[in-house]
Amino acid sequence: MLCTEAAPVFAASAFAEDAHGRAVRLATARLDLALSIDGADPVEWRACHLSGAGAGSGTSLRFVGDGDAPGVRLILRGDGPPVDLRALRFTADLAEGARSRVVTLEADLPVEGVHLVKSYEVSRDGYEVALMVQVTGPNAVSFMAGRSLALEIGVGRGLDPPPAAGFAAMLERVDRVIVGGNGARVVAADARDSIRLGAGDWAGFAGRFWSMLVRSDDCGGTLEPRSHGGIVLGPADGRHPTSCRYVFYSGPLETRALAHADPHLERLLFAGLWSWLRPLSFALLSLLRSLTSVIGHPGVAIVLLAVSVKILLLPLTTVAERLQEQVNAAQARLQPGIEAIKAAYRGEERTRRTLALYREQGVHPLYTLKSLVGFLIQLPVFVAVFDMLAVDFDLQHVSFLWMRDLSRPDALLPLPFCIPFFGCELNALPFLMSAVSLATVRRHRASGLTPSLVRRQRRTLTAATLLFFLLFYTFPAAMVLYWTSTNAFQLVSQEVARLWRGARSRAS
Is pLDDT at 12 greater than 50 in this prediction? Predict the structure, then answer.
């Protein structure tokens, strides 16, 4: 869903009739919040991230809307007769400050001398909403003895991930999370026990690109998972405060917006990576944004990112190539003897003579692991760049060539029927990626290998290409574009090197 219209203009008479009765609306360029007069709970909550294309264009998500239950609601728990806060009729008073827009709603509780006041404060330039709840009146303290306020939050349908086929389903999910100074962690889907929160911890829901989180320093001591997927934020045991303050972050998983709300929230980004690998993903994200600002389009920037990373990795690539050459040379020396042993011996005798051949040639039995070391030293960059491209908020709804959305598979054509694992659309980019990979394999000439070893190596690399095709087929187009560009750069470099060696041999 796109932000195709500017947010409604705030006005002191911002009341509207809807399915829930009278409602009051607070709106900024980033947030649109509608509160029902009955219960003073949100009946609509929408966030919009404006793009650089101008006001009113960008991406939006609805956190609360019609049919979403339980949404965000205040509950009163404890001793005494139950009180349904949603049945209360509130009066509203709106005000506008320099940095926020505020609505204060007040209702009488069904107890003499006790009132409930809710105040919603919407940030003008961020995605934060502050909710202040107060139980007031001469009998408030006695009423709250043995009772406590809690906040129940559910994930709306707007945050539900779109359907995804194949391995891409791993990316499209919504998790219950806790974020704070100690990092970000996921609350297990089957968790039922209460979880104690630390001071300043945020709790809520995070999808691939958007999150709804809440923090309360005075009434947020515990998190209680609910079977329907929601959570309840309540005070620590033994506390019965008459007032609570909650701060919501309802916005994109994007560095600038998260840091504006709380620097600790940036821990949500790349949370699945090891702590030592996250800075590399942030560095690659910064490089991609710099390239985009210079070039003007993220699609071209991804191609240049692939080239830049290959150039930056040249020292490691050189090490990997030398290790592979050592493995090739050892294979070439061992091959005649190994073939003779295989033809003449079986079982333990074959193993004994093979090991004797290794000792005779001065080769360690695990010598082939040298080539694996060359791959492993480049693996962290591979993991970091793909994790970054998978969750880069700025790639949403960005088209490039025939790709309508770089954050989704390229979906060139719809298929007449759905294929298990592969989905319901024909993705062309993985075929192009595999074609470039196969061309690289066919044109590669490994020095020092016998013809039979060259054929074996090609079969291995062809099988790896097929595995990458299966892995990448349903991945977002940005990730496949990056790997296609990497392989294309490898092919071009390979051909340039071949021409250079040919020119040198002719000159000599």
Answer: no
pLDDT digits 0-9 by tens, 172-204: 889 999 999 888 999 988 888 899 998 889 999
List, edge to edge, every strand of the sheet that includes 222-225.
Answer: 72-78, 147-153, 231-234, 222-225, 195-196
What CA–CA distance (Å, rounded) separates 252 from 212?
Answer: 9
The rounded distance, in Å, linking the Cα atoms of 305 and 313 is: 12
pLDDT tens-digit readout, 318-347: 887 788 777 777 777 887 888 888 888 788
Task: Enumerate domains of the chain plus CATH numbers.
Answer: 15-269 (2.70.98.90), 283-313+378-507 (no CATH), 324-376 (no CATH)
Residue of 436, 507, 443 lying closest to 469 (CA atoms): 436
Per-residue model confidence (pLDDT) at position 70: 67
First to last CA, the chain: 64
3-state secondary structure 60-115: EEEEECCCCCCCEEEEEEECCCCCCHHHCECEEEEEECCCEEEEEEEEECCCCCCE
Query: Contact, 167 vs 475, CB < 8 A?
Result: yes
Cα(295)–Cα(304) distance, integer angstroms: 9
What pTM was computed for the model? 0.85
Run of H or E residues at 498 = helix 477-507
Is the pLDDT at 100 greater than 50? The verdict is yes
